[in-house]
Design goal:
Helix content is 52%, strand content 16%. It is α+β, with helices and mostly antiparallel strands. It has two domains: 1-30; 33-122, Glutaredoxin (3-Layer(aba) Sandwich). The strands form two sheets. A four-stranded mixed sheet has the order 4-3-5-6. Strands 1-2 form a two-stranded antiparallel sheet.
């Protein structure tokens, strides 16, 4: 009797968890790395380049943030320690890294920030 009751409770708990997950997906609220699909779409449309420097802790954190949100593959990372990267970064006349630049709007944001802030600044 107790085994049957336990099994019934377990099945109910699993069914409820599946239902809640499906509701979140249905409402478009499923996040990857804390970033919604709508924000990932906005980010990808901006065609973002991130200027970075080797050994920069903030740049490493930005790369980890983008990776956890599945956005790293859609971000062009430019190392400013390389000759072409240094030349491109110098033309921007920005001071700090990471520096995010939209290929769509040509707007910029320097410094580590969350995805929503980067999107808002570059739109």
């Amino acid at each position: 009797m107790l085994d049957r009751l336990f099994l019934t409770g377990l099945i109910f708990a699993i069914a409820f968890a599946v239902y809640m997950y499906a509701q979140k997906n249905k409402e478009g609220m499923t996040d990857v790395g804390g970033v919604s699909q709508a924000d990932r779409d906005k980010y990808n449309k901006l065609r973002i380049k991130m200027f970075s420097r080797q050994g920069c802790g903030f740049c490493k954190k930005a790369v980890m943030m983008l990776s956890s949100a599945n956005l790293l593959t859609n971000t062009q990372i430019i190392d400013i320690d390389s000759s072409p990267g240094k030349e491109m970064f110098t033309q921007l006349k920005e001071n700090g890294v990471p520096c995010f630049v939209s290929g769509l709007t040509d707007k910029r944001h320097s410094g580590l920030a969350d995805i929503k802030t980067i999107i808002r600044r570059l739109e």
